[in-house]
Design a protein that fits this description.
Layout: H1 2-7, H2 15-20, H3 26-33, H4 50-72
Helix pairs in contact: 3-4
Length: 76
Amino acid sequence: MAEKREANKPGAEKPRRRRAIYLLLLVPIVATLWVPIYNRLDPEIAGIPFFYWYQLVWVPLAALFLYVVYRVEGGN
């Protein structure tokens, strides 16, 4: 009987899906910590080497990934 009540709770619908969404947060971490991906100078944008602008591009992208996870988790 207790199992049936737990299954009806709003947060208990799909625990695997909810855990899998957290893997999305690994994308910006791996993309910025794996330095060989962006350890070069070319291509440049407005004279800024790739090494710098690649990392700066990940700031808004990481925020976007966090927002997606927040919305999927049911954030207000």
